[in-house]
Write a structure and sequence with these properties.
mainly alpha, 2 helices, elongated, transmembrane, membrane, DUF7470, transmembrane helix
Length: 59
């Protein structure tokens, strides 16, 4: 994971999860919505990356 994301990527992911955890402590419904939003963004990013790799013949 460290090779793929780098230290900055891992730190960024930890900060995002920490922020969502803080929001979830205050309001669980909003925290759940934020988690769904982040998961959706991750799926979109994966789809774009896969599509780009296929376009260049790498997958």
């Amino acid at each position: 994971m460290r090779k793929t994301l780098g230290l900055e990527g891992i730190a960024g992911a930890l900060i995002v999860f920490l922020a969502i955890a803080i929001v979830t402590l205050q309001d669980p419904v909003i925290g759940g919505g934020m988690m769904l939003f982040v998961a959706g963004l991750a799926l979109i990013a994966k789809g774009i990356a896969d599509s780009t790799m296929r376009a260049f013949g790498m997958k």
